[in-house]
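Quick illustration, no need to memorize.
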Amino acid sequence: GRIQAMNVINEALNLGDLVKYEEDSLNYSRDVVTVEAGQNLPLGCIVGRVIATAKVKLLDPGAEDGSHLPVGILLGAVDATLIDREDALILARHGVVASKAVVWPVEISTEQQAAITAQLASLGILIRQSA
């Protein structure tokens, strides 16, 4: 018989890699949010909510518009490059996520990361080291 070469594909992290526990009843842990235009956000990124518009965008610890406070973690990649996306899902409360799959803002300090981790914990979102 003929032997076929196997292509090894390094898959991107998926929802199962990120979420280790959530409360399923009536989607208690999840919220549908609008992602502000001008962003292309990956699964697992932490988002904040702009107070003036109620839209979410990538967490920005240095901002003062509300987006410096975490409101959840994206449960899927969202391309809002050109327009607002009104169908994004976030883990908003009562869940456990794997640390390896959480996407942090690029220039975040250790202190900011600790503060954000604590703020997420206050929402019931726990970040756990994972195998």
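The two ends are 39 Å apart (CA to CA).
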